[in-house]
Amino acid sequence: PSTEGHYLRRVLVTGGAGYIGSHVVFALQRTQRYKVVSIDNYHNSYPKALSRLEEIARSGLRADATETEKQSTVIDAYECDLTNPADVRAVFEKYGKGGIWGVVHIAAWKAVGESSEIPLTYYHNNVTATIYLLQIMSEFDCTRLVYSSSATVYGTPPLVPIPETTRLKADSPYGQSKVVCEAVIQDLMHSSNMAAEPKRWRAISLRYFNPAGAHPSGLIGEDPRGRPGNLLPLLAQMAIGRIKESTLQVFGNDYPTPDGTCVRDYLHVLDLAAGHLLALDALAPDSTTFDNCPTPARYKAYNLGRGQGFSVLQILEAMRTTTGFDYKYNIIGRRRGDVPDLTADPTLAEKELGFRAKADLTTMCRDLWNWQTRNPNGYSSD
Ligand code: WQD
Predict the structure, then answer these.
(1) Residue 68 above 90 pLDDT?
(2) How far apart are the CA of 315 and the centre of ligand 1, in A?
(3) Which of 58, 124, 271, 283 is paired with 24 by a 20 to 30 Å CA distance?
(4) Residue 207 burial class via C-beta count within 10 angstroms: exposed 0-12, middle 13-18, buried 19 and up
């Protein structure tokens, strides 16, 4: 407990410097109920994001902020790779048994196309790392987990909008690595010796649809290393001139969708981050989220989406309007692992977590463009 006797729960965010991770850290700090620890290997992120987050958190403090509230603005950051368990164990050691209350596990490799080229690397970084993390959590009595899963676990879904009851059958090693991790976590939660476990382990998987946008301050945002694989950061970098192209290569327009291009369910990254907070609160001892299930569950999976899909061409049009950039486009062949339509049925998260993704596409594009114009070269500019 800190000086005021008020206890801040310490939460470890893996991938805390990344696009999703940094916005989740922002959401945790804003509540001033959590002390954040970040583990990141900076393979696809920058330490600069963490100092920007401390800047945002300090600017949010009241003049008469208590010691505890000030504590919530400091991020304990560690550079280490989750595939090195000794390094991860050393971080947990620092805080002792029970020192870390929960983990938000976001760090992963996530390029659908790339995963088909280097599947072993994807299984190592996504599955082995998760198993190491769960083992270390067990050793240190850390029994709350929010796991970053993905809509790609559904592969080509039989039904759209997609409910959580849809069978999991991914079409790429990336998506399959998420399916495997969900199974590992679920089996751990329901393992027999857990029944005797006094501290009820609980875990929630959040199946992200397509995160977009940035914190409206423009201080943190999406800045993948190398050429962006994702559509929106690519379009933003084209419009700012960081990528010297004005023609978008569209990966196929022969899909069974209104305009033939793939449809995705884009949600604002801050709405996505808010979903993580709701999930952590649902894991708290006093939460009843898990108890009013048919059988008191220890594991739940929720879609995080808006329930509204936009095609590639609709996104292109939205970014043309936001940036004023005169994009051209050229239809080329399909990208391996792409599926026609990933639109969420968001009702379970709304009902059980109180989750609502409010920001619309215009807001997502506006916040993305604000981040990009203030940081033409992302975090590496200054
Ligand atoms: C969107 C659409 C492309 C680039 C993402 C994440 C993945 C997972 C699922 C997190 C697709 C098309 C893109 C381009 C294009 N999320 N496109 N030309 O494929 O839904 O995957 O969500 O776990 O990690 O990457 O998003 O932004 O890559 O593509 O035509 O140059 O844009 O074919 O239909 P996707 P995306």
Answers:
(1) no
(2) 12
(3) 124
(4) buried
- As beta bridge partners, residue 10 has 35
CA distance 11 to 166: 31
* Distance from the Cα of residue 116 to its chain's centroid: 21
Summarised one tens digit per residue, pLDDT across range 294-351 is 555 789 999 999 999 999 999 999 999 999 999 999 999 999 888 999 999 999 999 9
Q: In sequence order, which residues have a C-beta less than 8 Å from that of residue 143 and are 6 or more positions away?
A: 102, 137, 197, 199, 200, 201, 202
How far apart CA 18 and CA 273 sit, in angstroms, is: 12
344, 161 in Cβ contact below 8 A? yes
Report which residue type is found at 135. Answer: Q
Distance CA 233, CA 236 (A): 5
Angle at which helices 269-282 and 19-31 cross, to 10°: 60
User: What ipTM is given for this predicted complex?
Assistant: 0.96
Pairing verdict, β 263-264 and 310-311: antiparallel
Active-site residue, 123 included? no
Rounded CA gap, 284 and 286, in Å?
6
How far, in Å, are 48, 56, 191 from residue 16 at the CA level? 11, 15, 29
Catalytic residue among 154, 174, 208, 379: 174
Residues 344, 162: Cα–Cα separation, whole Å:
5
**Residue of 162, 304, 312, 315 to test ligand 1 pocket, by largest number of atoms within 8 Å of CB:** 312
How far apart are the C-alpha atoms of 247 and 299, rounded to whole Å?
A: 45
280: amino acid identity, one letter: L
Residue with CA closest to ligand 1 atom 14 = 231
Q: What is the chain's length?
A: 382
